[in-house]
Batch of 2 targets.
Target 1
Amino acid sequence: MTTPSDGRAAPVAAVEELKALLGPRGWLEGDDAAPFVADVFGHRRGPAALVVRPASTREVASVVTICRRHGVAIVPQGGNTGLCGGAVPVAGGAPCIVLSLARMNRIVSIDPLRFTVTAEAGCIVQTIQEAAAEVDRSFALDWGARGSAMLGGAISTNAGGINVLRFGNTREQVLGLEVVLPDGRIWNGLRALRKDSSGYDLKQLFIGAEGTLGIVTRAVMRLHPRAPREQTMFASVGDFGRLMELFALARSVGDAHLSAFELIPGRLIELALARHRRLVRPIETRAEWNVLVRFSGGDDIADLLERLFAEAFERGLLTDAALAGSLAQERNLWELRDEITPMRLMTGKMLKWDASLPIDCIVAFLTEAEARARAIHADLEVIAFGHVGDGNLHLSIWPDGTPGDPVFDRRCEHIVRAVDELVWAYGGSVSAEHGVGADQCARVRQQKPPIEFEMMAKIKALLDPDALLNPGKIFGPASAPARPAD
Ligand code: MLT
Ligand code: ZN
């Protein structure tokens, strides 16, 4: 934390005004503020003059107005569970405050007839899931950090997770938004319509914008019919080269009931089981590759899963499987899935891709990515997992060596470049669901044609001409995007 007397700190007057506006419950500093200025893994950390915790949209708007008057930047923050350093200040950046939405955590209304829920940005994803279940509806957003991730952060990063195959990602769930704009005005776009062809769909600008264009304060989200039953099969893959043949079979057998298809490497299962003693090994077969296949529907889904297993086994696509036969077994499988994040299980230098690919290219991509990486540095470990049913492969490469050694560092850079280029050659994206944050700016910039980046910069300059909102994110360190020439 900086204090108001630090060189790059916000003006004392701004800090005092903010404290007076919000009252004692509305701000934090010193040790209390420490968790808000570092990301979840402590990889990213930056100074902030103050952490503010407004309790209403009006207060958010007043904070923005004060900051704007004093030239103080604002880093909006939800649950701070992001993986790209998007919700914490950047070191060496402009004087800033962190604006936590945590106190704006209410469900405003839930309407089972309209299939909508309206909630504040600081509402925890799991809270909304549970509220939806109470009215016999499903809320689509779901991933491991459901118990701490917040709605505003999910919208601002266009988060994905395990339900994208069934419902689409966050963008597809948003019907309406309320946003505090960088000039302090409030845009109430809280419409709950499925159809609205009345011009530009402005809410789309703020979804995935990571708080660089405005601060999402409330949202109307879609709900879905709740499937009476869900059942998951954990299976060891017989032939990884035919993984997508297995997916195609799951699709044809399960039809609309197929609701998740996740790839899990044996290596991560062993690490997760060793770390978390409560987790139970699903099958005795220790295969290099496994899948979690979930069907959601009526009483027939168990039969359909049995049929899938029989056909897949017959064709050599699977070698072993277990069908969850109880709620406890179902829970165990998905808790195992939640715990396989390599960043939590492994140490050392990790190169990471949150790759989005055409689903038929996943296996070829992975094989080529490994070959490209090994050609640069032979001694490395490759781990891949994720939501392959929607084309999202989480790939990590762990080269053995000493960070700081110039040869090793250069090789790491070459691996990143070589694999990024492969992603692009397949028509993919280096950020499927984790966003850009401070970590991926340079890579995303190279991914997009200049005209696309120019349009983004023009929109940023139009809405936030003083570049006060979440500096250093998406556009990179020179966060004040060069004002486009007229
Ligand atoms: C996951 O699917 O588990 C997450 O996106 C986390 C990760 O990629 O590490
Ligand atoms: Zn994921």
Target 2
Amino acid sequence: METRENDALIILEDLRAQALQGGGADRIADQHGKGKLTARERIDLLLDKGTFEEFDVIKTGRGSVTDVKEGIPGDGVITGYGEISGREVMVFSQDFTVMGGSLGEGHSQKICKVMDMAAKVGCPIIGMNDSGGARIQDGVDSLAAYGEIFVRNVKASGVVPQISCIMGPCAGGAVYSPSLTDFVFMVESTSYMFVTGPNVVKTVIHKDISSEELGGAWIHAERSGVAHFVASNDILCLRDVRKLINYLPSNNAQRAPLLDLSDPSDRTDPALDYLVPVDPGKAYDMSVLIYSILDGAEFLEVQSHFARNIICGFGRLGGQTIGLVANQPAVLAGVLDNDASVKAARFVRFCDAFNIPLIVLVDVPGFMPGPEQESGGIIRHGAKLLYAFIEATVPRITVIVRKAYGGAYLVMNSKHILGDINYAWPSAEIAVMGPRGAAEILYRKEIGTSPDHEKALADREAQYRATFENPLVAAQRGYIDDVIFPHQTRHRLIRALQLLEGKKGEEPRRKHGNIPL
Ligand code: HXC
């Protein structure tokens, strides 16, 4: 009896030692040679020192049942849990040194176990992806295994934060798990994501293209919008994940942790009184306002390279995490276009799902005109943002900084779509459309018959500006709760958040709404 137990222990230790070596020294050297860390090194960097607890270290795939020694201990993925800034997170990290990190049945079962645990205990799940995709030898079992993960991604959506780091290949149907999660991080030069790789592209459309050009980090950060964050290497990527986690609650029943950055709530910034240029046609940088009002001037921008005409990200006010959405007049004059609408809508929905109050800073001349936008679906995409705001029951506070025209005024969390507290700066211009367009429509005949067209138009424009280009009418109607001094913005926002602390959202009884996807 004693001998048998000892045998089991010896085998166990053997398997454990084997698992800890991953694919062995040569493959680890290859991994490092590509500028990538190993799966275990990544976990160590992500988590607080010494907090990692591993699950299923010797688990193998089903193919190895007959002789456990023949299996692949760990099955190409490392899973478990640990802490980030003292809070628990579940993790999995695919090990490219073991069969290219390919996903077979056992590998998937390990991932599913930590996903299930995340949902059960209510903590974020962070996946580090570095995989050749479905394990070819496992055939349809590996496809079924992906299905198991997709199902869990969807069921956990809006319940616990889900974060994906793409740190190597991610191809074929495998891309759909990360894209179902809340935030995707990619690493420059070493990661790529595509549904069909360069070889298929060559065969089907006879085009030569590299993996980097097809689905590298910058393609997804700037063009497709799939990547929310890009880092230049694994170390910086994992540091950014830690930063993000610190802004988030562990689950949808909790509030994000308070963090006191010792920044007085009544701090004023006189420079803000001069932020908006006197000439309404001039641009300025909205990020000046953002960094000025937030605690400790700390802001984590999401999708900072995509649809830069709108800014989304996390900061803190009075220690509390807020989600910030702001038009950026320095890029495309801050218009709402297809990409900006979709980017902001998804961000608003994330914040609403996880009890993060929304602060909206408005300077929007309208929706982007033109056939490209219309045929590209601006009606559908703009509706997403409208839907997302209206549906959001978290505290919603708006500051109209300058332009707020037409439908875009309404969409940007106006009072009319249930904004809770809506302020305007004295520089706010709230109207159905800009002065030139309005004058041209209202006084077309008069301007047309005038001997001096330009002067007639300019006069009518000036008249329109005097009547509509200010926040007074909106304030008189009660659509704006107060016109505030720019330098007081931080204090007014923090007070408004305090008031809305106990806001109760209405939940209509239905299976789910039908957001115009
Ligand atoms: C089994 C795999 C594998 C896979 C890689 N390996 N991908 N084993 N199944 N899918 C193994 C290789 O055989 C090799 O083993 C080791 O991993 C390292 O791979 P290399 O090719 O040497 O590495 P590298 O040159 O860096 O190339 C990486 C790669 C390439 C580009 C990912 O391996 C590759 O193209 N793999 C196949 C990718 C693929 O088509 N996957 C299926 C996608 S479709 P040895 O023992 O030689 O070191 C998919 C569907 C998902 O995933 C569906 C979800 C619904």
